[in-house]
Write a structure and sequence with these properties.
431 residues; alpha/beta; Rossmann fold; 2 domains; six-stranded parallel sheet; 15% strand; globular; disordered N terminus
Length: 431
Amino acid sequence: MHLPTTPEAPPDGAAAMTPAAEAAVPPGGQAQHLPPPDNPPIPERITPVWEATRVPGQQPASSARILRVLHVINGEHYSGAERVQDLLALRLPAHGFAVGFACLKQGRFESQRQSVHAPLFQLSMRSRFDLRPARQLARLIRQHDYALLHTHTPRALLVGRLAAIMAGVPIVHHLHSPALADSTHRLRNWVNASVERLALMGTAHLVAVSESLADHACRLGISRRRISIVHNGVPVLGPLPLRPAPRLTWNLGMVALFRPRKGLEVLLEALARLRQQGERVKLLAVGPFETPQYEEAIRGKAAALGLDNAIEWRGFRSNVTAELMQMDLFVLPSLFGEGLPMVILEAMAAGVPVIASGVEGVLEVIRHGVDGLLATPGDPQDLAQAIRSVIRGEVCWRTLRRHAHARQAQSFSDESMAIKLAALYHRIFQP
């Protein structure tokens, strides 16, 4: 799916729990509020909540009344969806909404988030069908005056739907990826999709991060009138960084929570092909593996392909932008199941040209041959050819990065994401 030349198309125009809240949790209950350092207690009422959740240097919304929204998330990872949640907590207060988090699993989100001024509650959900946290979540909603519940995963939706009924608040659900194609485990996908379909029937509104996910929700039986598309967004980093085109070795990069659907095996095979053809390329692989078993399988495949000296396994890194700045091309060879990948937007913001497989979500960001290249999913030969077309100058590296940088700033910023979501919140409270 690569192009031999690049058309010169123009760029696209928390706070500590109150005594009342502590008393509401029974002895041995799992609800635990984890205050970030130096965070003042949340007032009992809504009016002064800005001072408890204000991001340093950010001005409060002009409205005197700032409503609280509790985002229910899994919390074990800090990847694309979690970065969306984190950025929303930083940006929404300026638009009249203060964000808190309820995490159903312990993990990386609590320690890696930037929104340290947003209150975070830790709940313990022992399995995907453990409904006991719903009652604890309802208590938190009442005790801390949350006006709206916003869930982000099928697990969170299941618990959140029950809690919203008990607490008498509306609920919004965020679709980050299609549940039916979220992993290579068909039974797990079917269970998650079934749970999601049932729980969605009672939500006030759905947020889809892409047109393809909105279509997915419609196929689940959700009216299109109840779906809003809010594209993911990332911070605009400023002017396009100046850097020369690579002359000797090209650094290919991939940032992901490595799991089968991300297509890392395809990239390894493409990398081996390129090296066999005399191209001087290496891979910077940034991110954790989903399971030790998958990591072992991938490292074994890399060794079998003779790539041990061609790959740097960086592991999890909190500063994704710093990693991207070391890459000449960013590659995302996903097989399926993408909503709208945050890491593609982050690469564009950093001025790193993107080569990705043409799967749902990606097609709404990358215009083939203009601000990136698209390859056939699961085809290492086509992926290698797309990469080689840039290395050999058949597609202009400088033009790709210039157009990609401009497109992200204009269409996929974190501020535009927050503005659209805040507008949806306002419609829910003022229909």
